[in-house]
From TrEMBL, chain A:
Keywords, in A-Z order: Cell membrane, Coated pit, Endocytosis, Membrane, Protein transport, Transport
Comp. bias regions, Low complexity: 636-652
UniProt-listed PANTHER family: ADAPTIN, ALPHA/GAMMA/EPSILON (PTHR22780)
Subunit composition and interactions: Adaptor protein complex 2 (AP-2) is a heterotetramer composed of two large adaptins (alpha-type and beta-type subunits), a medium adaptin (mu-type subunit AP50) and a small adaptin (sigma-type subunit AP17).
Domain Clathrin adaptor alpha/beta/gamma-adaptin appendage Ig-like subdomain: 699-810
The family this protein is said to belong to: Belongs to the adaptor complexes large subunit family.
Name of protein: AP-2 complex subunit alpha
One Pfam family of this chain: Adaptin_N
Localization, UniProt: Cell membrane; Membrane, Coated pit
The organism of origin for this protein: Loxostege sticticalis (Beet webworm moth)
GO biological process: endocytosis; intracellular protein transport
From TrEMBL, chain B:
AP complex mu/sigma subunit domain residues: 1-140
Record GO cellular component, one term: Golgi apparatus
Keyword Transport: yes
InterPro entries noted in UniProt: AP1_sigma, AP_complex_ssu, AP_mu_sigma_su, Clathrin_sm-chain_CS, Longin-like_dom_sf
Keywords: Coated pit, Cytoplasmic vesicle, Golgi apparatus, Membrane, Protein transport, Transport
Membrane-topology annotation of the record: Peripheral membrane protein
Organism of provenance: Loxostege sticticalis
Protein's recorded name: AP complex subunit sigma
Lineage, opening ranks: Eukaryota, Metazoa, Ecdysozoa, Arthropoda, Hexapoda
Keyword Protein transport belongs to the record: yes
GO biological process entries: intracellular protein transport
Family: Belongs to the adaptor complexes small subunit family.
Main localization of the protein described in the UniProt heading: membrane
Length: 929, 157
């Protein structure tokens, strides 16, 4: 057993030794359980424990916790220790609390009281203990309790430096929990002036606080820029002996320098004050100059600290993006690091250069390092470094080097790590499209992608190549020739078959003149792959075949033979069966004119942002440099840059995921089954891609209580609700579909009519792990009838990108219906009674589709009223009765829905004892059938 | 801002954990388990930084112990590495060439030293001298208390 420092607790040391001597996991658990039982009995026993014993047991509990076991008692004893007059006991109490106590524990009041007492202490060590506790676990409650005291401690002249340091960080913690606690006015300048404090530790702590304040309110704290530059200037010009203990391995105050450089990145370069700007430039120059000096020590700590400051300075230069010479200098400096023997430096240099590549001033300078970066991609031993190199190549690519970079990336793809292949495929596809001056090159690249990494080529990529070929006449013949050649390979990836099938179906005629690729040959080549493909690809090929029939009548018989084959015409797959039989009929029945019209060449796709780019952005938010250069040097031959709203990554991507199709609403061909869509609804019911269920279609929840309320690529929100009388209970289930945790999720109710419908939202956990689901309960009480629908705004962070979703809650007045059974007589008696102008509401509306009485019936059954059969003389009419329960009254309500099949219209009549209820029920049901 | 710091052994045993963000215990355990596995799987010459979930992980191995910090995106990686080093230096100075056992048996001290260096996820004091001074002052208070207690026991106070 090693020596125990301070006032060693022998019992604890013995216990730890015992645990370490355990031969097996079981023995360890046994020993721990024995100890837990012992401690429990000590805490429960009637003999009062003295402070030392309490401290010892609390410490043992802490140790057991560290071993990974749950601790569910001892909290009270720890809180007791806080009020001990012995420092060592107090300290252990605080330690236990900061490690083990939840911020919403019921003990928090007691803890706050103890902290209050300690803050009053004359001994600064006690004060600091209390401050450290707040800084570590500070909550909203604490912000309330200490919000006035701590700012005073921070700026008061009598506060000792060590206490000031803790107070600054303590305040930072509380500010993060409740931003309103920082007083404004004169406090602002007093806090800013901490940057001038003679004590470096105080400045270091205060800079973190100021950085957070600035982020919240940059205008108010603007004065900090001048002070920060002044302070930075004093540090960078200091010799390493000046700052004594704040010099770290010959580097003067690296931590403070970095914090100041960070702080300055909250502002644009100080332009109003040329003096400040000049001084800052001098500082940055000095940092570069020092980087060139021979090292003062061979220790890695020296170079790390020095380079840390340098990297932060480069970050600031990139942020300011205003001084070309500094940007170029930064680039040269980073270039040196690319061949440094430290992996860490190479990694950071690649990362930082990626940002430099996006500045117009340094883009060219970055390009000089292309060779080394390509080598990094190929040779680095660590995949995360290779990844950075790929990112940088992507960022430095422009039309002058695109061919080479794409070529290198393609070559590397053959051996690349599986973890980065998919992303590389996307990047290559984007670069090839963006910088293609010759689209035959683009087609070659994409087909190579499919050949090399077919499994990683997502649908978006092959959709896109088809879009482009269809839109560019000059490349169509080449594309047809190239896919034809590619399909000659004995084995080719299914994605190749898809692209080949689609393109030959459209443009096979362009190469049919050559006997080597005559219609028969084309058809047989495609068909030789047919049996190896999945059903989706076969379906696509069947469409290709009928298109070939149109292009080359001479192969009609052979194609019909294929359609007639049992494996198609009687396929177990209903889609294939349908296509085979319908295409067969089409080829038999239709005249060549009709065939030519139906199977006309695809119209051009509307030009818009590459769907692939959207996918990449979603995959790596924040890591795809925004292309600043593009606007400055438009590509003469490139596709017009579409406008995209990058913040709106839900809706946008939903449309883009469909890839080939035009925005919803127009009848346009959609992926793969182009022909079918030309024929329209005749053949298939419209297919909805699973990714498009993004908007919450609240209307359908009129008729049901459970289901998926919202869904996008990150999150799925389901709902389950039940209602009784005027009360309702709604469970929302938030599921994280993605591969990173959803953080800081905060649902906020948007509902103005609380006096009509009172909704209580229960708290929930702020984090959803990848693949996990959490639930949140809401309760609702209907006080009187209401019209609007409450909504909820849900904000969260996903992969560091803030997201916001607004959705309607399935809370409509009809949820508070109680169905009422009645016979015909009483129904019509009441119906007549409610005949007044104020009581009824009526709407006549067009049916949403063909009138389907069964569907209407199912919907009405879920609406909440009682469906009354055999009452209305016309059996096609629907009548319903129900009572709306509210706290203040119950409102009887009758409804009649009359379908008119000939006119495809419905007439809806609602009668109730309250005008607003009739209106609302009528509004809810109108246009629903 | 630092989100959390973990110290664990080459065998994957957790020796110290300090969280500066509030997570439920279950999540903390999951993060700890996953991160330890990830870091232990890395080879010696690999880069000390990795992008992991939504944090930037900076780690370094000292003898049998891994020191591992989860930082936010804008934090400076190299300096985090040196923060770890400074912590190791402090432990070393305090314990006199520190080893894993010192931290196991005196985990509370390791926590106290960390609290003087980093507070609420932000660096508080970088001066080695000042941190050690603060810890010495704490120890002195404890010793006084121990002496008092001993004196009281023999009836001298």
């Amino acid at each position: 057993m090693p020596a125990v420092r301070g006032d060693g607790m022998r019992g604890l040391a013995v216990f730890i030794s015992d645990i370490r001597n355990c031969k097996s996991k079981e023995a360890e658990i046994k020993r721990i359980n024995k100890e837990l039982a012992n401690i429990r009995s000590k805490f429960k026993g009637d003999k009062t424990l003295d402070g030392y014993q309490k401290k010892k047991y609390v410490c043992k509990l802490l140790f057991i916790f560290l071993l990974g076991h749950d601790i569910d008692f001892g909290h009270m004893e720890a809180v007791n220790l806080l009020s001990s007059n012995k420092y060592s006991e107090k300290q252990i109490g605080y330690l236990f609390i900061s490690v083990l106590v939840n911020t919403n524990s019921d003990l928090i009041k007691l803890i706050i009281q103890s902290i209050k007492n300690d803050l009053q202490s004359r001994n600064p060590i006690h004060v600091n203990l209390a401050l450290q506790c707040i800084a570590n676990i500070g909550s909203k409650d604490m912000a309330e309790a200490f919000g006035t005291e701590i700012p005073k401690l921070l700026v008061s002249g009598d506060t000792m430096d060590v206490v000031k340091q803790s107070a600054a960080l303590c305040l930072l913690r509380l500010f993060r929990k409740s931003p309103e606690i920082i007083p404004g006015g004169e406090w602002t300048s007093r806090i800013i002036h901490l940057l001038n404090d003679p004590h470096m530790g105080v400045v270091t702590a205060a800079t973190s606080l100021i950085d957070a304040l600035v982020k919240k309110n940059p205008e108010e704290y603007k004065g900090c820029v001048t002070l920060a530059v002044a302070r930075l200037s004093r540090i960078v010009t200091a010799s390493y002996t000046d700052l004594q203990d704040y010099t770290y391995y010959f580097v003067p105050a690296p931590w403070l320098s970095v914090k100041l450089l960070r702080l300055l990145q909250n502002y644009t370069p100080p332009s109003e004050e040329p003096g400040v700007r000049g001084r800052l430039s001098e500082c940055l120059e000095t940092i570069f100059n020092k980087a060139q000096e021979p090292p003062k020590s061979k220790k890695v700590q020296h170079s790390n600290a020095k380079n840390a400051v340098l990297f932060e300075a480069i970050s600031l230069i990139i942020h300011n993006d205003s001084e070309p010479n500094l940007l170029v200098r930064a680039c040269n400096q980073l270039g040196q690091f690319l061949s440094n023997r430290e992996t860490n430096l190479r990694y950071l240099a690649l990362e930082s250069m990626c940002h430099l590549a996006t500045s117009e001033f340094s883009h060219e300078a970055v390009k000089k390092h292309q060779e080394v970066v390509i080598l990094s991609m190929k040779m680095e031993k660590d995949v995360s470094v290779r990844q950075q190199a790929v990112d940088l190549l992507y960022a430095m690519c422009d039309k002058t080097n695109a061919e080479e970079i794409v070529q290198e990336m393609l070559a590397y793809l053959e051996t690349a790590d599986y973890s980065i292949r998919e992303e590389m495929v996307l990047k290559v596809a984007i670069l090839a499209e963006k910088y293609a001056t010759d689209f035959t090159w683009y087609v070659d690249v994409i087909l190579n992608l499919i050949r090399i990494a077919g499994d990683y080529v997502s649908e978006e990529v092959w959709y896109r190549v088809i879009q482009i070929v269809i839109n560019r006449e000059e490349v169509q013949g080449y594309a047809a020739k190239t896919v034809f050649e590619a399909l000659q390979a004995p084995t080719c990836h299914e994605n190749m078959v898809k692209v080949g099938g689609y393109i030959l179906g459209e443009f096979g005629n362009l190469i049919a003149g050559d006997t080597r690729s005559s219609p028969q040959v084309q058809f047989e080549l495609l068909h030789s792959k047919y049996h190896l493909c999945s059903a989706a690809t076969r379906a696509l090929l069947l469409s290709t075949y009928i298109k070939l029939v149109n292009l080359f009548p001479e192969i009609k018989n052979r194609v019909q033979e294929v359609f007639r084959a049992d494996s198609n015409l009687r396929s177990a797959d209903v889609e294939l069966q349908q296509r085979a039989s319908e295409y067969l009929q089409l080829s038999i029945v239709a005249s060549s004119d009709v065939l030519a019209t139906v199977l006309e060449e695809m119209p051009a796709f509307p030009e818009r942002e590459s769907s692939i780019l959207a996918v990449l952005k979603k995959k790596k938010p924040g890591r795809i440099p925004d292309d600043v250069r593009e606007s400055k040097s438009p590509q003469p031959n490139s596709i017009p840059a579409p406008i995209i709203n990058s913040t709106n990554n839900t809706n946008n991507s939903s449309a883009d995921l469909l890839g080939l199709s035009t925005p919803p609403g127009t009848t346009a061909p959609s992926a793969g089954n182009g022909l079918l869509d030309v024929l329209g609804d005749l053949y298939t019911t419209p297919k909805i891609s699973p990714n498009t269920v993004q908007q919450n279609n609240i209307k359908k929840f009129l008729f049901k209580n459970n289901g998926v309320l919202f869904e996008n690529d990150i999150i799925q929100i389901g709902v389950k609700s039940e209602f009784r009388q005027n009360l309702g209970r709604i469970g929302l289930f938030y599921g994280n579909k993605a591969s990173y945790p959803v953080l800081n999720i905060q649902p906020e109710l948007q509902w103005a009519d609380m006096h009509k419908l009172n909704i209580q939202v229960k708290p929930m956990e702020p984090v959803i792990e990848a693949g996990a689901q959490i639930q949140q309960m809401l309760t609702a009480e209907c006080i009187e009838d209401f019209t609007d629908t409450p909504s909820m705004t849900i904000t969260f962070n996903y992969n560091n990108v803030p997201q916001k979703i607004t959705l309607k809650l399935p809370l409509t007045l009809n949820k508070f219906f109680e169905p009422t059974e009645m016979n015909g007589e009483s129904f019509f008696a009441r119906w007549k009674n409610l005949g007044g102008e104020q009581q009824r509401a009526q709407k006549i509306f067009k049916a949403q589709g063909a009138i389907d009485l069964t569907a209407t019936r199912t919907k009405l059954a879920g609406f909440g009223m009682q469906l009354l059969d055999g009452i209305d003389p016309n059996p096609e009419n629907f009548v319903c009765a129900g009572i709306v329960h509210t706290r203040v009254q119950q409102v009887g309500c009758l409804m009649r829905l009359e379908p008119n099949k000939q006119a495809q219209m419905y007439r809806l009549t609602v009668r109730s004892s309250k005008e607003t209820v009739s209106q609302e029920i009528c509004n809810l049901l109108a246009d629903q059938f | 801002m630092m989100q959390f710091m973990l110290l664990f052994s080459r065998q994957g045993k957790l020796r110290l954990q300090k969280w500066y963000v509030a997570h439920p215990d279950k999540l903390k355990k999951k993060i700890t388990r996953e991160l330890i596995t990830t870091v232990l799987a890395r080879k010696p010459k690999m880069c000390s930084f990795l992008e992991w979930k939504d944090v930037k992980v900076v780690y370094k191995r000292y003898a049998s112990l891994y020191f591992c910090c989860a930082m936010e995106q804008e934090d400076n990686e190299l300096l985090t590495l040196e923060l770890i080093h400074r912590y190791v230096e402090l432990l070393d100075k305090y314990f006199g060439s520190v080893c894993e056992l010192d931290i196991i048996f005196n985990f509370e001290k390791a926590y106290f030293i960390l609290d003087e260096l980093v507070l609420g996820g932000e660096l508080q004091e970088t001066s080695k001298k000042n941190v050690l001074k603060a810890i010495a002052a704490q120890d002195l208070l404890q010793e006084d208390e121990t002496v008092d207690a001993a004196l009281r026991e023999v009836g001298l106070l």
